[in-house]
Specification:
The complex is a heterodimer. Chain A is mostly helical. Chain A has one domain (4-218). Chain A has 8 helices and no strands. Chain B is an all-alpha fold. Chain B has a domain at 74-213. Helices cover 74% and strands 0% of the residues of chain B. The chains are: A mainly alpha, B mainly alpha. The A-B interface holds A 146-147, 150, 153-156, 159-160, 163-164, 166-168, 170-171, 174-175, 178, 194-195, 198, 202, 205-206, 209, 213, 216-217, 219-220 and B 66, 118-119, 121-122, 125, 128-129, 132-134, 137-138, 141-142, 144-146, 148-150, 152-153, 156-157, 160-161, 164-165.
């Protein structure tokens, strides 16, 4: 367990040193939001809360997919052999999941900000909404980091990544959409506890599976 | 797996002949809307039971693959997944037939129907992954890992999410399931043999496919 912290700082340092990728993702998020704005906001205030949440989760899904996919796919072959000598596979996958969760949450928060600026803010219960964003970031990050590790071994990794991850993510997204609908409508918190527990359970399962199974992927 | 004996094949045939005759001719409970379509219970639901059972056996072989690689468990695992998917597609078709007469349209957008479709997509992605891996050794290990992940993704899609939402499917969303029907004990007498019968037919199919593949391998 002790290898996690240095690996995390390494990830963060790498990310901040290579600012082009971070800026690229930010720009991607901005253009996605702007496209949504241009296509829907031509008539003022014509957007329904349901459409808002659908657009929001689509933007999140694509931005997070693109940023998390590179966690294993981009890495060079020699690098992974080097890590193999330095750290245990469990430490590597846990540090990746933590790092990607933070990254996914940062992206979601940014997307929320951009949506508020450009498209409007129909969210009535912001605490529940932010809680949903945190849990969804964790869920997306844990499944996507693991699947990116599998896809990195395949020959056409980007296609395989998309094919493998979308069906697996749907369970997380369904819960997220349901929760964000409750947050948009400003329903009482007790209405959403079932979904929150469910999302938490799905996250725990995918993280535990990633933790147990990652050593087998790593070995090759 | 040692299934050289033939008694279980005969048992499968006897059970299915029994299910088809009794299932079509015997008395069934008269319920509103369902009427005679309640007989779909004997033909549609066993497909899903069989699918889940076959997928579970596939997961068992996937675990064996990871424990003792290179022993040919991979062939078993993938063929159980293949046959499970076949039963899943048949379950989908029989369900759509039933929905056409009970709900008014073959694809009603019911959470259970959508969840089942996504679960099938997860397993189709598994076959895509196998196709895009080149070395046999990698194929065995990575597809076994994804198999476990796919099974874990399927369970909430089919068993948990449809129960949480409003659904018109019998047995979820507060609708009466199997247990709530009158005369349920009489229906059980046909239903459980149908599950066993279809599972045995699946086992038979897997057995034949594996033997053909083993012969092909030893010839080339």
């Amino acid at each position: 367990m002790k290898g996690i912290l240095p690996l995390l700082t390494k990830e963060l340092k790498l990310e901040f040193r290579k600012q082009s990728t971070l800026a690229g993702i930010a720009l991607y998020l901005f253009s996605l939001t702007f496209i949504c704005y241009l296509t829907f906001k031509l008539k003022q205030q014509s957007i329904q809360p349901v459409t808002w949440s659908a657009l929001f989760w689509l933007v999140i899904l694509f931005a997070v997919m693109n940023s998390v996919a590179k966690s294993f796919i981009g890495e060079r072959k020699g690098l992974s052999i080097y890590y193999y000598y330095l750290a245990s596979p469990q430490a590597i996958i846990i540090s990746k999941i933590i790092y990607n969760t933070v990254l996914a949450f940062a992206l979601s928060a940014m997307a929320y900000f951009l949506f508020v600026v450009f498209i409007g803010n129909p969210v009535q219960d912001s605490f529940l909404f932010v809680l949903t964003l945190v849990l969804t970031s964790w869920g997306l990050a844990s499944s996507l980091s693991f699947i990116s590790a599998i896809a990195a071994k395949a020959s056409n990794s980007h296609v395989v990544m998309a094919v493998l991850s979308f069906p697996v993510l749907i369970a997380v997204l369904l819960m997220a959409i349901r929760l964000s609908k409750n947050a948009l409508d400003g329903l009482d918190f007790s209405v959403s506890t079932d979904e929150l527990y469910n999302l938490l359970a799905i996250n725990c399962i995918s993280t535990a599976l990633a933790y147990v199974l990652f050593p087998y992927i790593w070995r090759s | 797996m040692n299934l050289k004996k033939h008694w279980w094949k005969a048992l499968a045939i006897v059970l299915l002949v029994y299910v088809h005759t009794v299932g079509l001719l015997a008395e069934v409970p008269r319920l509103n809307i369902l009427n005679e379509t309640i007989r779909a219970l004997y033909f549609h639901v066993p497909m899903w039971f069989g699918m889940v059972l076959l997928y579970a056996v596939s997961v068992y072989y996937a675990i064996l693959c990871l424990r003792k690689p290179g022993q040919g468990y991979d062939t078993w695992s993938v063929n159980f997944a293949h046959t499970g998917t076949l039963l899943g597609i048949l379950g989908m078709i029989t369900g759509m037939l039933w929905a056409n007469y009970t709900w008014g349209s073959p694809w009603h957008g019911d959470p259970k129907q959508n969840g089942a479709a996504i679960a099938l997509l997860v397993y189709l992605a598994y076959f895509v992954l196998r196709g895009s891996l080149e070395s046999e050794e990698q194929k065995e290990r990575l597809s076994a890992v994804y198999n476990l992940f796919a099974f874990a993704a399927m369970v909430p899609l089919i068993f948990i999410i449809p129960r949480l939402t409003e659904s018109v499917h019998p047995g979820s969303g507060g609708n009466p399931g199997f247990n709530a029907y009158d005369l349920d004990s009489r229906m059980r007498l046909v239903f459980y043999p149908a599950v066993i019968g279809w599972f045995l037919v699946g086992l038979w199919l897997v057995n034949i496919r594996v033997r053909v593949q083993q012969v092909n391998k030893s010839n080339s």
